[in-house]
Write a structure and sequence with these properties.
Blueprint lengths: L2 H10 L7 E6 L5 H11 L3 E4 L2 E2 L14 E2 L2 H9 L3 E7 L2 E6 H9 L3 E5 L2 H10 L4 E6 L3 H11 L4 H14 L8 E4 L5 H16 L10
Parallel strand pairs: 1-7, 1-8, 2-7, 3-4, 8-9
Antiparallel strand pairs: 3-6, 5-6
Length: 211
């Protein structure tokens, strides 16, 4: 093989670029379950944590599930351009701090962003190279059953989430992949997310992420 061909092959065989994964979908589809499974896999990636003005739910931890901040602090973050995006969801503010994601990507780590559909749409406009995965339940009826089981919403909030889910399905076209998370099949769902990440790293034309 000639030196020129060796050089070309070496260029082609560079390590794949880190991914920015948007893990989104219907409320109650199992996004948190998938994240827990990915954490246990001990793969080298960074799970982005967003800031929110809502109160912590039972069992949620500061800096692990969310950064819980006041509305005043959240506004300061907006004014200082510290957030990649932010949105008002069910009357609470949610936003994604920019710097931790930037640092992780610079270290070569894949970044996973758990985000609502509204936020995912904003990200795809801001960062077209992001890989967007939509998680769904097999049916609205099963989705309602799951939401009732977790007992975190009032009847009024539950009704709002179900109506929102129907609207969110209209946004499926902005996503790159869809995964149906069926009852008692969490391991398969987690494996599918990992398979998507593996496939993306084998692309000839790697996605570009510019923050």
């Amino acid at each position: 093989m000639t030196p020129t061909k060796n050089s070309r092959l070496a260029q082609i065989c560079q390590p794949p670029k880190p991914l920015l994964i948007l893990l989104s979908g219907l409320s109650g589809a199992g996004k948190d379950t998938v994240l827990d499974g990915l954490r246990k896999s001990k793969l080298p990636f960074y799970i982005s944590v967003s800031a929110t003005t809502r109160a912590p739910r039972a069992g949620e931890k500061e800096g692990v599930d969310y950064f819980f901040v006041s509305k005043k602090r959240f506004q300061e973050m907006i004014d200082a351009n510290e957030l990649l995006e932010w949105a008002d969801v069910y009357g609470n503010l949610y936003g994604r701090p920019r710097e931790p994601i930037k640092q992780a990507l610079q270290k070569g780590l894949d970044v996973i962003v758990r985000i609502d559909v509204q936020g995912a749409a904003a990200y795809k406009k801001l960062l077209p190279g992001a890989v967007a995965i939509f998680m769904a339940a097999p049916s609205i009826a099963e989705l309602e059953t799951r939401l009732k089981k977790r007992k975190t919403e009032t009847p009024e909030q539950l009704e709002l989430r179900l109506k929102t889910a129907e609207k969110e399905l209209d946004q499926i076209h902005i996503f790159d992949y869809i995964i149906v998370n069926r009852e008692n099949e969490a391991e398969r769902t987690i494996a599918e997310v990992q398979s998507i990440m593996t496939a993306e790293k084998c692309r000839v034309n790697q996605r570009e992420i510019k923050l």
